[in-house]
Amino acid sequence: MPRNAVVGVDIGTSSSKGVLVGLDGTLIRSAVREHTPDRPGPGRFEMDASVWWDEFTALTRELTAPGDTTVVAVGVSGMGPCVLLTDEHDTPVRPAVLYGVDTRSVPQIDRLERQLGADAVVRRCGSALTTQAAGPKIAWIAEEEPEHYARARRLYMPSSWLVRRLTGAYVLDHHSASQCTPLYDTHAGDWHAPWAAEVAPGIDLPPLRWSGDAAGTVTAEAARATGLPPGIPVTTGTIDAWAEALSVGAQNIGDLMLMYGTTMFLIHTVPEPLTSPSLWGTVGALPGTRNLAGGMATSGAVTNWLRDLFADADHATLTRQAAEAGPGANGLLMLPYFSGERTPVMDPDARGVIAGLTLSHTRGDLYRAALEATAFGVRHNVEGIEAAGGDIRRVVAVGGGTQGPLWTQIVSDITGRPQELRAVTIGASYGGALLAARLVADADIDDWNPVRNTVTPRAENAARYEELYGLYRRLYPETRATVHALASLQER
Predict the structure, then answer these.
(1) Residue segments in the chain with a per-residue pLDDT below the cut of 50
(2) Which residues form the Carbohydrate kinase FGGY C-terminal domain (predicted)?
């Protein structure tokens, strides 16, 4: 007799991932579809929403094809905050504008800060207006592409788009809404109608639910497209990093999740709202939770870039050579701002810097410097979280970058903090499966996904990394004017 199972699917920046999971948390199967965002100009990242649905249907059919399970619920998540605008018939008016890696909305941020008041936005919304926020991206479309905006009536993100295609429901989760600054009031827990009318006129903003709430059930039409049983419940879903945190149990007060992926993301759970000009204050994925979050614009994206440059080497080879290079990468120091930087720098015109290069440096040194740069960026964010009042009691790591021991060890050495690793670190799709399972059964994350290892800092590397971190913190302000000038040249 087929066993009952749930499906979790996450639409990420560079791939869509799906998992089939038993109601006891056992990972039965996983599948991946890789994709590449479109880059129509400097600082612009977009994606056709048809990719999201096409890959979802391919994943569910692959996961369920053997016929040895009965799927009883579906969980979804996706990168965000993204802005997909559609007309009243759910036809996209243009490709989706992606999250903070897309930096086109700087002029709209400047205008909205003058119009609404920068301090007022932080007080009401929990976060400053940055290129991460969805509101300025909507304003950019309205101002720069009025012919497209004139047709726009609805707002979607990857997770809510999947929900719409699966169930017909037009909903969004509270957490995703809280990243639509300045449209959402974190204190009222609802859209702020006056600012929504000002920033997103004509858009019928979706009703709000919590990530683990059932948005609806799979329609007959969606069942035919996906191979899923009709009538099973679908979660409302959320942004990928928050699903990642749920997948490893990092949602208790004092927890900090580190997500090792194409970008690095940090989520700290706090007992009450905290704000910072260099971080994002949000509501959590679960009712009653609050977060102070940060996100680097690149991390794994830089190592992928290096792998592509060295076409005859894969990540395993480069990681081995980086381990041989040793702490400090033989005197190389990198700023990982290859797509600008989000927190805590908040500078879309920042650029990558590699300092200390000589003719004797190897690709292993460069790869090591990239891993260390990410770790220095994590430490910079951690210090910002604590300066804002955060109290980090436990660090939990998740994501593809945790599969080998080197990267997590470097981060622990540089931050001086242990990191818990759970048995399953596949990430957001597994978190989506957990929420789906909770729609139909009791599912406790400590039973589903116990701790398997703790990475501890190595004292022998502390002095070297302390010196390098001081240089890292100096390198950005000392090169800022130069890289801003270069960023201007790149846009011509």
Answers:
(1) none
(2) 257-438
Strand partners, 398: 259
Task: Say whether both 75 and 162 belong to one domain.
Answer: yes
- CA of 272: how far to CAs of 95, 193, 439, in Å? 37, 24, 27
8 Å CB contact between 272 and 292? no
Within a domain: 146:
yes
The residue type of 144 is: E
CATH of the domain at 189: 3.30.420.40
- Residue 361 gets which letter from DSSP? -
The tokens for 334 are 């990198």
Statement to judge: residues 187 and 286 lie in one domain: no
Q: Are 478 and 447 in contact (CB under 8 A)?
A: no
Same domain, 212 and 291: no
pLDDT tens digits, residue range 279-306?
999 999 999 999 999 999 999 999 999 9
- Reply yes or no: is the peptide bond before residue 182 cis, omega within 30 of 0: yes
Q: What is the CB-side half-sphere exposure of residue 137 using CA atoms within 13 A?
A: 31
- Inter-residue contact 155 to 176 (CB < 8 Å): no
pLDDT digit string (tens) for 52-96? 999 999 999 999 999 999 999 999 999 999 999 999 999 999 999
User: Structurally, how many domains does the chain consist of?
Assistant: 2
